[in-house]
Amino acid sequence: MAADIIDNRSRRLADSIRALMADHAVAARFAVGYLFLDGLAPLRAQIAGLDEVHILIGNVVNRLTEEQVQEELAASLPGADPPAREQEDFTATLREAHARAARVTALNLRRTLEEMTPTPDARALLLTLAGRIADGGLKVRLYTHGRIHAKIALIDYSLPNGQPSRIAIVGSSNLTLGAPAHPTEMNVVVRDSESTQALAQWYQGLWDQSQDFHRELFDELGQCWALQTHSVPPGSAGPDTGGASAVPTT
After folding, report:
1. Is-above-0.85 flag for pTM?
2. Can you give the residue ranges of every domain in the chain?
3. 218 Cβ neighbours under 8 A, 6+ residues apart
4. 9-23, 45-59, 172-186, 191-205: which range is least confident on average?
5. Residue in 162, 161, 186 with CA at minimum distance from that of residue 174
6. How open is the CA angle 43-49-53, to the nearest 5 degrees?
7. Phi-psi domain of 75 (left: phi exceeds 0; alpha: psi -120 through 50; beta: other)
8. Distance CA 35, CA 55 (A)
9. Does domain 3-81+89-229 fall into CATH 1.10.1060.10?
10. d(CA 1, CA 138)
11. Where do the DSSP E strands lie in the chain?
């Protein structure tokens, strides 16, 4: 198997992926577990320019404690009874569990956005994310069937000869973690077609089992400081926003 190493002691994953997407990349798919929006800053130009970006995230509590989650959910749903543990309608129970996972994740993203330093670069990133959701170029899904610990990036290319190509990056580093990661994180770039096809099938299987979350992300972005202090006129689509004021596509 043809592969090369991204050693976090000397090369940051986001910087390596940015370099790998420099020429002829048309689409990217990521599985990251936790989603740290500020960690996407090095890839803002690529997110803005690619035809399609998919991000698969997990439904785990991160910056909020479980106690904070319960308090904030109770405040957001006044008068609502806790979901019953035993119900005859299993579908309704499962639907409520998935809805709760989405609410918890949205609360985490809200806290993350509140804690971001309001720099011009951070504002540009958030406007870009909102714009790409609005134009359909960025899709985010939430995996609600358990934790996602695996980290993977799949990059698709359209080569000058018209032939498609793909590489995969697998390892332990969370691409979206903005702060310096643990020095022993390690990632491997996989290039052979058989392995990248198998990894793409693995990713697609989890993607198909997940629920759309880009509308929730769009709503949280719309309420954050970046879009509140830098409004976008309806119908405008500057290079950083992609028309962030539009309603996101399905």
Report:
1. no
2. 3-81+89-229
3. 130, 133, 134, 248
4. 172-186
5. 186
6. 70
7. alpha
8. 9
9. no
10. 31
11. 3-7, 25-33, 52-58, 138-143, 151-158, 164-171, 186-190, 211-212
Token pair listed for 197:
């096809």
Q: Which helix (H) or strand (E) holds 173?
A: none
Alpha-carbon gap, residue 206 to 210, rounded angstroms: 6
What is the C-alpha to C-alpha distance for residues 30 and 226, in angstroms, rounded to an integer?
A: 24
Note whether 79 and 170 are within 8 A (CB): no
Residues 6 or more apart from 113 whose CB is under 8 A from it? 37, 126, 220, 221, 224, 225, 226
Q: What is the pLDDT of residues 98-157, one digit of tens each?
A: 677 778 788 888 888 888 889 999 999 999 999 999 999 999 999 988 778 889 999 999
State mean pLDDT over 216-220.
92
